[in-house]
Amino acid sequence: MKIALVCPSNMLFMPYVGNYTKVLDSAGIDYDVINWDRNGTENPDNPMTFRDKKTALQRGFLDYLKFRNFALGILKRNDYDKIIIFGIQLSYFLKSYLLKKKKGNYILDIRDHNRILKAYDIRKVVEGSAYTVLSSPGFKKWLPDSQKYLISHNTTIDNVEELQDCANTFLQKDKVKIAFIGALSDLQVNIDFINSVKDCNKVELVYHGEGLFNKDLQDYISRNKVGNVALTGRYTKEQENGLYNDSDLIHGLRYNENINCKTLLPNRLYNAALHGKPLIVAEDSYLAELTQQYGLGLVVDSLADLEKKVGNYLADFNFEEYKEKRKAFFQKVVEDNLLFRDSVNKFLGF
C-alpha cells in the first residue's frame, strides 16, 4: 500500500501530522510526505519537498497554485492508494483530482477556517472523503452538515492517567504570574492586556515564544516603562513543560473578531489543563464554552478591572472541583482521539 501525506508547510510547524505518522509507523506502513519548505529548514535534496524563494510566511493564490502543480505531479506519478490532505486551501486546489481519482480514499484534515470558503463549496470534498478530521468541534458551526467528521485534538495524551499532578500553590502567592506560551500573533489584545495590568502590584505577565509582533510589543513595553511585563523570546520544545510549571495562570486571550478566533481550540487549552494551570480567555468563543463547561479557567467579558477579576476568581477557586473537571475534559479528549486513531486504522484496512 502506498500512502501520501500532502502538507502545505514544514512538518516541524505542523505537529499534528504526527497524529497520522504515529498510526502509520505503528502499522509498519511506508509513506511519503509531500510538503512545502517555507522556511528553508529541510533537507534540500528531498524530492518530495517544494521550495520557493520567498522569505515571508504568508503565501497567496499563485504560491498555492505552484505547490499544487508540484504535489499533483508526484501524486499522479506514484498513484498512491490513500492520500491525507491538510488544509482547506489544498482541498480546493486538489479537489478535481481527489473527486475524480481518489473518492473515498482520502482524508481531509482541517485545522482552521480559510477565506477561500467564500468562493468554494467544500461540501463535495467533505462527502467524497473517507473522513474529514477537525481539530475543533466548533468548526461544525461553519462547515456543512456531514456524518464524515472526526475530531483529532492537538494533544498526544492517550490516557487520563498521564495527567500531571497539579498543586494549588498559586493560591497562596502574593503575586500571580500569568504566562503566554506560544507564537505571538495578536498585537492589539496584548497591548490592551498589558495596559490592564501594568500598574498591578499583584500581577506579573510574561511572554514566552517568538511570533509576528515580539519587537512591536517589546518596543511598547520599553516606551511605556512597564515594569511587570517581560518577553523571553524563543524557547525549545524541551523547555515548554518547565515554562508551564513555572506559571500560575495561562494567557489564552484573543479578540473574537473572526470565525477562526471564535471556533478554534489552541494548543494552550490542552497544555494548560495538562499542567493544572487555569486559563484566562475571552467570552463569546468555543474556547470559552469549553472553559466554562469543564471549569478550566476564567472567562472574562472585557479586560477592564482585570486584577480584580483575577483576584475574585482565585478567592473562589475550588481546587478539588478543578481537578475533577479537568479529568472529565481529558476523558472526552482521549475518547475522541481513540476514535480518530481507530478510524485511521480502518481507512488503512486494519
How are the SSEs placed, and which strands pair?
Blueprint: E1 3-7, H1 18-27, E2 31-37, E3 49-51, H2 61-78, E4 82-86, H3 88-93, H4 95-101, E5 106-110, H5 123-128, E6 131-134, E7 149-151, E8 176-181, H6 187-197, E9 203-208, H7 214-223, E10 229-233, H8 237-245, E11 249-251, H9 259-263, H10 267-274, E12 279-282, H11 286-293, E13 297-300, H12 306-315, H13 319-347
Parallel strand pairs: 1-2, 1-4, 2-3, 4-5, 5-6, 6-7, 8-9, 8-11, 9-10, 11-12, 12-13
- Helix tally equals 13
CATH architecture descriptor name of the largest domain:
3-Layer(aba) Sandwich
Number of domains: 2
Strand content: 15-25%
Query: Strand sequence of the main sheet, in spatial order?
Result: 3-2-1-4-5-6-7
Secondary-structure element string = EHEEHEHHEHEEEHEHEHEHHEHEHH
Alpha-carbon distance between the two ends: 12 Å
User: Whole-number radius of gyration?
Assistant: 21 Å
Description:
This protein is of the alpha/beta class and 350 residues long. The protein has two domains: 3-152, Glycogen Phosphorylase B (Rossmann fold, 3-Layer(aba) Sandwich); 160-330, Rossmann fold (3-Layer(aba) Sandwich). 39% of the residues lie in helices and 17% in strands. The chain has 13 helices and 13 strands. The protein has helices at residues 18-27, 61-78, 88-93, 95-101, 123-128, 187-197, 214-223, 237-245, 259-263, 267-274, 286-293, 306-315, 319-347, and strands spanning 3-7, 31-37, 49-51, 82-86, 106-110, 131-134, 149-151, 176-181, 203-208, 229-233, 249-251, 279-282, 297-300. The strands form two sheets. A seven-stranded parallel sheet has the order 3-2-1-4-5-6-7, sandwiched between helices. Strand 9, helix 7 (214-223) and strand 10 (229-233) form a beta-alpha-beta unit. Helix 6 runs parallel beside helix 7. 33% of the residues are buried. The model has no long low-confidence stretch (mean pLDDT 92).
